[in-house]
Amino acid sequence: MANVVTRNRESVVIAVPQRRVAPRKYTVEAIGTFFLVFTVAASVLSHSTFTPLAAGTVLMVMVYAGGHISGGHYNPAVTMAALVRRRITPADAVAYWIVQFAAGVVAAVVARAVVNPAQVTALAPSGHALAATAVVEFLFTFALCYVVLNVATSKDQPGNSFFGLAIGFTVVAGAFAVGGISGGAFNPAVTLGAATGGQFAWSTLWVYIVVQAVAGAAAGLAFLTLNPGDK
Question: CB atoms < 10 A from the CB of 4, how many?
Fold first, then answer.
């Protein structure tokens, strides 16, 4: 969620030397992504019925916690949307992707070690189920990125206090609606973490990541088209 803070706060952040800002941003992205992926993985591995609520809630609180430092993306697809929307530089986007994926893998390893389930069944859709997975992952990843850009980066909503709630509940809605179809990832870092934890089959991983990345880019283009004056 690039630049979720108010315009006044943005001027303070810009004044800080880049060599000091960058490590803070990347660290915040790593922390937020870790707790998001760990929460999802631990909930799924322990067979919790409240996984959608847990995922949306931890995303919400991490957005509120770190949004003023890094923008609180915690999702490579959101970073893609912010890049297309021109709220993050290509260099920062690449750095965000590296720390997000790395944090997701570490979180999944820790969750697997902590929960230590006797059996893990990997989700491996094929045929019509794989096509359905691609559709719903695209739709709700797009929805998530679209919501992020509109509530957290729009000049028409400076300093609003509801952005974290809106973002978190988009994930809750998506996970409840289509979690039974695709697993409800909507996030390449969560997808990679789920594969690392044995929840997604490696053979279908590319479908998730491709459609999620395309959805993020599409959300960025949709925002620019619908808000031509918001550069």
Answer: 28
